[in-house]
Amino acid sequence: xxxxxxxxxxxxxxxxxxxxxxxxxxxxxxxxxxxxxxxxxxxxxxxxxxxxxxxxxxxxxxxxxxxxxxxxxxxxxxxxxxxxxxxxxxxxxxxxxxxxxxxxxxxxxxxxxxxxxxxxxxxxxxxxxxxxxxxxxxxxxxxxxxxxxxxxxxxxxxxxxxxxxxxxxxxxxxxxxxxxxxxxxxxxxxxxxxxxxxxxxxxxxxxxxxxxxxxxxxxxxxxxxxxxxxxxxxxxxxxxxxxxxxxxxxxxxxxxxxxxxxxxxxxxxxxxxxxxxxxxxxxxxxxxxxxxxxxxxxxxxxxxxxxxxxxxxxxxxxxxxxxxxxxxxxxxxxxxxxxxxxxxxxxxxxxxxxxxxxxxxxxxxxxxxxxxxxxxxxxxxxxxxxxxxxxxxxxxxxxxxxxxxxxxxxxxxxxxxxxxxxxxxxxxxxxxxxxxxxxxxxxxxxxxxxxxxxxxxxxxxxxxxxxxxxxxxxxxxxxxxxxxxxxxxxxxxxxxxxxxxxxxxxxxxxxxxxxxxxx
Length: 519
Known about the structure:
By secondary structure, the protein is α+β, with helices and mostly antiparallel strands. Among the domains are: 234-340; 445-518, no CATH class. It is 35% helix and 23% strand. It contains 13 helices and 24 strands. The strands form 5 sheets. Strands 1, 2, 3, 4, 10, 11, 12, 13, 14, 22 and 23 form an 11-stranded mixed sheet that branches. It has a 4-stranded mixed sheet with strand order 8-7-17-18, with no helix packed on it. A 3-stranded antiparallel sheet has the order 5-9-6. Helix 1 runs parallel beside helix 4 (134-148) and helix 2 (78-87) packs across helix 9 (389-406). The N and C termini lie far apart (88 Å).
């Protein structure tokens, strides 16, 4: 999209003598902060609706920029495919991804033995989901912009939003937005959007700005955090070459469409770990081995490549570590801070409005709205336990599309409707993130076993009495036709029935004991 200025706007480069920075003053219809899946999806949705002058600010250098510690794999399920179907790109998604119905896992033990099996939680009755690396999915969205929407959407890479202000509007009653962006080379541009979209993640400058503006009257834009057994786990990613050898003899090599779980020789809790690799379609792409452990694990203490090699060779004697981990990758892994799984969290404010009154000579006064709307990790963030990060973000975009449709693209009505339609699901989603699948990382073996027993019990009871008992929440989430609210209600109802049955059984047992004592 080209930068457009009105007659009162100076588009010339200005020099700040203090910072030696260049400044552009420009007006844009829509400004989206964050060029990840939520940001690009929102831009595409608005463009398809006929909106023009859409600008996306993205801090990364390119759409497919490779960040080893953020080389996540997405599982785009039926919820996410609502958006790809709307845009007409589901066929392109299928071409570059691995279907869940062909999801096989090979477990490689420390002694070198291998066992391959199909992952059992895939429900053949549900819509096929697709595994795809994050950067491949982002690139898919960006290529759709390049092919069909270049006249409406501009993505500015290497550009960060640094400041958001409310400014008094000239010759009018009210305020306007002023958004300041900065590129890596120091060039500064100011935008005055009618609609500002925050898709900039958990540390969103858009949401934090709204929190400051609104803090005297409410806490709508304050993230509310909740406990989870998986929050505060640390993670790092080890990048392995394509088709790396799976044994020291070099006879067998990794297959890109296969998932792997490589078990370590260590058994004590502070050293044991697994390398988890999810499937990808591209055979020439690097494989990401995820390492997820508690913060007191020994792997976080490795400070140089020599220590990395020593630890990995002891942990995984079944792998030729020096062949599959380059010196550069060992050094990068040692220096990387990795990351922490965040606690499940959400904010209750999904939009903000600045009303202003435009004065039009000879036409009377015409009121309009300047709005801010939030989507994706900016409003809901949680550990990756349930695979709903990208899917819930794409569903946010679909709900915003619905709200715009019901209001003829008038944001004064659409943004409040979006919040009312989406907030209850956002809240339910965070509760599901707490309870659905938090013990999968074996961070506490006893609790993991108890959780597994509970999950198996719910699964069996559902098979026996499906009208009374619902499947485990993690299974229900795969049903894209159910809202997060509906899923949570079903899971909680089953929990209540189990509590009642448990109390009846305990009461019956105590009554029997009491009768025996009397006899």
